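To the wet lab folks,

You asked to see what we're planning to order before we commit. Fair enough. Below is the target structure as tokens, and below that is the sequence we designed to fit it. If anything looks off to you, flag it before the synthesis order goes out.
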């Protein structure tokens, strides 16, 4: 049975890790280099690095801090933010990323997913989707959750997979930072159409939220979270031990 992955997320703004609620009210947390190394050393299966204002600022992703993070960790690294072209993929991969996450760039140019998958392989291309309920539908938002694209999230994800996305990260804006649990309804709708790994993001508040996620939706491959890890509310080793006790396969952390 495939082990479930636990993935901390570094939302980086101006070279610092920040965290907010519902994509708003961002506050400073720590250095991405310090946090990245800590997670790599303490049982995280992968790490996600988002330059969260690159797209909204209309600039390229900062690469100096990215290189430093990549050089200090020994787990797979997914990087996103301001990815709008194959040149951006190339630049980020050369900085040490293992996978590249594309969001607003794919909305502007849906062919980017196909082009990147063809050049670098499906396994390298992650489609990150920021979704929110609008009039009872799951709608795709762009530019850090600021802009309603009008796209239906489920149809957009199906299209992305058809174009070659090798992994889906679903960021529920409705549950982001709220800590009341993952958005099981939205995730279930995605799992129904996804033929590639699905990563759940947004809403984790405690260990039981991860247990509920994987037991309710066995097709979800990984749980991604930020603040509960950043602020020491949940230790990854404790989380993985609890998953193991609940019969959920995971890579156990040696203390």
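Sequence we intend to order:
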């Amino acid at each position: 049975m495939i082990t479930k992955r636990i993935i901390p997320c570094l939302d980086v703004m101006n070279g610092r890790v920040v965290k907010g609620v519902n994509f708003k009210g961002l506050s400073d947390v720590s250095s991405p280099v310090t946090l990245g190394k800590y997670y790599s050393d303490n049982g995280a299966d992968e790490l996600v690095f988002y330059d969260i204002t690159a797209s909204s600022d209309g600039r390229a992703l900062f690469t100096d801090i990215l290189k430093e993070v990549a050089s200090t960790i020994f787990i797979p690294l997914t990087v996103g933010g301001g990815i709008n072209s194959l040149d951006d993929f190339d630049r980020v991969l050369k900085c040490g990323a293992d996978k590249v996450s594309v969001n607003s760039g794919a909305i502007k140019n849906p062919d980017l997913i196909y082009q990147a998958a063809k050049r670098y392989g499906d396994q390298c291309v992650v489609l990150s989707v920021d979704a929110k309920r609008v009039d009872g539908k799951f709608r795709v938002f762009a530019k850090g959750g600021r802009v309603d694209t009008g796209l239906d999230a489920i149809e957009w994800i199906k299209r992305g997979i058809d174009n070659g996305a090798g992994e889906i990260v679903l960021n529920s804006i409705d549950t982001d930072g709220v800590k009341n649990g993952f958005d099981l309804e939205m995730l279930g709708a995605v799992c129904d159409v996804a033929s590639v790994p699905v990563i759940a993001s947004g809403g984790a508040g405690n260990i039981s939220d991860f247990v509920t996620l994987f037991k309710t939706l066995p097709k979800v491959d990984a749980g991604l979270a930020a603040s509960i890890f950043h602020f020491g509310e949940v230790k990854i080793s404790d989380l993985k031990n609890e998953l193991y006790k609940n019969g959920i396969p995971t890579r156990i952390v040696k203390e």
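Structural context that might help your review: The chain has a mean pLDDT of 91. The longest strand covers residues 125-134.

Thanks,
Computational group
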